[in-house]
Amino acid sequence: MAFAWGLLEAVTLFIVPDTWISRRALISSRAGLVAVYSALPGAILGGVAIYLASVRLHTEILAFYDWLPGIGPKLIAKAGDQLEQSGALALFLGGYTGTPYKLYAAQASATGIGLTAFVAVSVISRGSRFLFSAVISSLIGRLGRRFGIRLSIMLWLHAVVWILFYAFYWTAMAEWQLD
Predict the structure, then answer these.
(1) Among 6, 76, 99, 147, which residue is least crowded by beta carbons within 10 Å?
(2) d(C-alpha 35, C-alpha 115), whole Å
(3) Residues 6+ away with beta carbon under 8 Å from 162
(4) CB count in 10 Å sphere of residue 73
(5) CA-to-CA distance for 147 and 21, rounded, in angstroms?
(6) Are 122 and 43 in contact, with CB atoms under 8 Å apart?
(7) What's the confidence (pLDDT) of residue 173?
């Protein structure tokens, strides 16, 4: 599940693998780490596929991403501008700012970032964020169990938090795109 989610989110899916990773980590630290180490290769494979495809289909890929929820011309331009100005550092920081990874993958080649650098920074950026999600959720799960909160309650709360997060994110992105 985590591998497929990582792959699909890097290419088209608009909900991050952190949702699954953090859910698994609430259940157990080990399950969270397994999800991290499963999602990461999928995400990198998806990123490389988009990177390579964008060499020939750059305009078409960006037009398709403009159609996806939470993405628009301003966000696409923002990712491209960040890559132009900061190079691979933008790819790293983008994973922590809400800018979809797929936008960096689609524009990295056009901004002069080589495939090797793209992969290396992707592994560090995606891996660190996935791991962060797992560690935080694992700690929350342990704390919840220590205070006697049933796992079923924590899993429901987890779902509610992610639903609220995406409601806020998509609302903010829609408003930002209109400005």
Answers:
(1) 147
(2) 25
(3) 19, 22
(4) 12
(5) 23
(6) yes
(7) 78
Residue whose tokens read 């964008």: 54
Enter the tokens of residue 61. 């890929």
Tens digit of pLDDT for each residue in 94-107?
988 889 999 999 99
Region for 149 from its dihedrals, namely left if φ exceeds 0, alpha if ψ lies in -120 to 50, beta otherwise = beta
Task: Report yes or no: 82 and 98 within 8 Å, Cβ to Cβ.
Answer: no
What tokens appear for 45 in the block? 């494979």
Answer for the pair 129, 62: CB distance below 8 angstroms, yes or no: no
Q: Is 0.90 surpassed by the pTM of this model? A: yes
pLDDT single digits (tens) 82-92: 999 999 999 99
Residue 150: CB atoms within 10 Å: 10
Does residue 179 surpass a pLDDT of 80?
Answer: no
18 and 6 in contact (C-beta within 8 Å)?
Answer: no
Element (H, E) at 86: helix 73-86
